[in-house]
Amino acid sequence: MPITTLSSRELNQDVSRAKKAAKNGPVIITDRGKPAHVLLSIEEYRRITGQRRSIADALAMPSAAGVAFEAPRIELDISPADFS
What distance in Å separates the CA atoms of residue 27 and residue 1, rounded to the nearest whole number? Predict the structure, then answer.
């Protein structure tokens, strides 16, 4: 996994380069020559943090616009509380 290093100035001048590089590995962003931030792809971030995408997150993504989803309805048998 290649690690790319960009200065803050380079990042500001070419954000698309940083985003492309993050697909292949972490991008270290320096501030005055010292590492200050790390840019990761969302997949790598989730892998590192152990986060899993919820169904709500997946359906909120623009690429899910054509996905049909209807939550099943449930019937609850609710009886009144007995306070006697």
Answer: 11
